[in-house]
Design a protein that fits this description.
The protein is of the alpha/beta class. The chain contains 22 helices and 28 strands. The strands form seven sheets. The chain has an eight-stranded mixed beta sheet with strand order 4-5-13-12-11-10-9-8. Helix 4 runs parallel beside helix 8 and helix 15 packs parallel to helix 17. The chain is globular, with a radius of gyration of 27 Å.
Length: about 625
């Protein structure tokens, strides 16, 4: 029986080794783990999984696996029909935005030094160890020719200003791709699959369009490339490469569809394909032969198994927040993890194990942190009960998911509610009091946070509304709106209102709005804000609220802003009153989520998980 998928995915993440899972026409799944091949029966025959860099997987229909991977070993395995398996190694070079380029003496602009390019191409292949990859047992070599790495630096007019054989015309700009593909094929031989990852476009104003990429793909196919893995963007246009939730799901599938019409080898569609239903639609409509998964496998390494067994409701969905993966690694140089899956990178340390002694546990609050703590505690064998005073679960996830550009959070809410129901955890709809908790061995306080209300003149006027009441519709919002506070919540609220026809003025005390926001969110929101008529006042503070607006002051002095509604988005403060009472009564109690400190979904899941594991 196949061990849990997180085992081999963790190996991929830690060692940058690449494993693949495919299945053919028979309802079987073959998995290569080191030298050990395991084949199991699968619940459906529609999907297949292929490995890629950093645990990237691809999904396809069995018939396409057989037809499209001619160079991948296939055949009879333990009597099963046409099971296919492979391991993938990716070759990449950092390009002109990485320090390694200095050793290659590449000049994308200025005088021509063609021998430097020849040397660089040779060094690239030597460093990437394409022959060693074959010797080590890898079944596929994938050339990374996307995302602003070296090859796209040559391909894009945005970065390539050369005037020799490697610059200028499309033929010249694609030359290095063809030379490297030819060289890799020569070194690995005819029996090893060679694929390449391409950006459909780099999304630069003066970059390369999809038409150029189509011509490149056609030329590469003639050089023996066995499949195309299609993505998009470069380092400067990162929101098209590692798309946040403000960008549409399946963001680069259009490019895979366009290229597929012009080549005769399989095309892998990738990018923000977070749910099996998206993958099925792509395959059914012929937009791609395979579907690649990256971040969804950090959110849930069991994604393939759960999709195979027709249990998509059990998949913990990636919400594309980029907080645990991209933000931590690329920008903060920390170990990779996942906002909704605290086990990533700590699978051994944070493994869910049975409790030494089952206990009765009360969880106060059915928000993200409370439900995660309840789930983990229940899986460990504790008797768990949730108290929730509101008629719906989810806590502040309800407000977070309200804007359409944050719809990715909604499947996460559904997932959490489903797990609580499947585990049989009762939810009592009432405000928990001290008397209700006397008979429990321990209490987890997931009591959330409340809006900060400033002490300024007029704050109690009907025109003043706190951010949560404005978002969830508890209080009406007029046509003309002033949003006080340009942090994450205030900026998102202002953007949502502006995109829905309100005339919005956003007021922020700091020199810039969205301080502390994830880089990809900042870029995506900035693009969207630029398309609205929102007025933004920075270095400006609220002085008073009046019946028809607000008085603010900045470098130019005081100004009267007229509005129908003034929304106060000045942050949230932790609500831990019940916890304080429990501790005072010498009761075992724990804080999770916003009750510790107002934070993000990352904080809710990680604190909830760890407390559920601790008790």
């Amino acid at each position: 029986m196949l061990r849990r998928c997180c085992g081999f995915v963790a190996g991929v993440l830690r060692h940058r080794r690449n494993l693949a899972v495919l299945w053919g026409r028979g309802l079987r799944l073959a998995v290569l783990r080191g030298r050990h091949l395991t084949v199991i029966r699968c619940g459906c025959s529609r999907l297949a999984i292929v490995g890629g860099w950093h645990g990237r997987l691809a999904v396809s229909r069995g018939r396409l696996v057989e037809a499209g991977c001619g160079r991948v070993r296939s055949g009879e395995i333990r009597g099963y029909r046409r099971a296919v398996w492979c391991a993938v190694s990716t070759l990449r070079h950092g390009g002109c935005r990485r320090a390694i380029v200095k050793t290659c003496a590449l000049r994308l602009a200025g005088k021509s030094h063609e021998h430097d390019i020849d040397n660089a191409a040779g060094q690239r292949n030597q460093r990437a160890n394409d022959r060693r990859a074959k010797t080590a047992g890898f079944e596929i070599v994938e050339i990374h020719g996307a995302h602003g790495y070296l090859l796209t630096n040559f391909f894009s007019p945005h970065t390539n200003h050369r005037t020799d054989l490697y610059g200028g015309s499309l033929e010249n700009r694609m030359r290095i791709y063809l030379e490297i593909a030819r060289d890799v094929r020569k070194k690995v031989g005819p029996d090893m699959a060679v694929t390449i990852r391409l950006s459909g476009t780099d999304y630069e104003p003066d970059g390369f369009p999809i038409e150029d990429t189509i011509e490149l793909a056609k030329a590469l196919e003639k050089e023996g490339i066995d499949a195309f893995h299609i993505s998009g963007g470069d380092h400067h246009t990162m929101i098209h490469q590692v798309s946040p939730m403000a960008i549409n799901v399946c963001h680069n599938v259009w490019a895979a569809e366009a290229i597929k019409k012009h080549v005769h080898v399989p095309v892998i569609a990738s990018g923000s394909i977070t749910l099996p239903e998206y993958a099925e639609e792509i395959l059914a409509s012929g937009k791609g032969d395979f579907v690649g998964l990256g971040r969804p496998l950090w959110a849930d390494p069991e994604w393939p198994n759960k999709a195979c067994s027709d249990h998509p409701e059990d998949i913990r969905p990636c919400i594309r927040c980029n907080e645990g993966c991209l933000e931590r690694t690329f920008f903060n140089y920390k170990a990779v993890t996942c906002a909704v899956n605290p086990q990533i990178s700590r699978e051994g340390e944070l493994k869910i194990k049975p409790a030494e002694k089952p206990r009765t546990i009360a969880v106060i609050g059915a928000g993200a942190a409370g439900m995660e703590a309840a789930r983990v505690a229940k899986l460990r064998g504790h008797d768990v009960t949730i108290f929730e005073e509101k008629p719906i679960d989810g806590g502040l996830l309800n407000e977070a998911a309200a804007p359409e550009f944050k719809a990715d959070i909604r499947p996460l809410m559904k997932y959490q509610a489903t797990q609580i129901k499947k585990l049989g955890i009762p939810v009592i709809r009432k405000r928990a009091e001290m008397a209700d908790l006397e008979d429990y061995d321990a209490v987890i306080c997931a009591t959330g946070s409340t809006p900060i209300i400033p002490r300024i003149p007029g704050v109690d006027k009907p025109i003043a509304v706190d951010c949560l009441s404005a978002i969830n519709g508890a209080k009406p919002v007029g046509e003309r709106v002033i949003v006080i506070g340009g942090g994450l919540v205030g900026s998102e609220t202002a953007l949502d209102l502006a995109e829905n026809g309100h005339k919005v003025t956003l007021v922020e005390m700091q020199p810039q709005i969205m301080n502390g926001v994830a880089v990809t969110d900042f870029l995506a929101y900035s693009e969207r804000i630029a398309k609205t008529d929102m007025r933004i006042l920075t270095n400006t503070r609220l002085e008073a609220i009046e019946d028809d607006g607000a008085i603010v002051s900045g470098k130019q002095g005081e100004e009267k802003l007229t509005a129908d509604t003034v929304i106060l988005a000045l942050g949230l403060k932790a609500n831990h009153q019940l916890y304080d009472q429990l501790i005072a009564a010498d009761k075992e109690a724990y804080l999770v989520g916003d009750a510790v400190k107002a934070g993000k979904i990352f904080d809710a899941f990680h604190t909830g998980y760890r407390v559920g594991l601790k008790i």
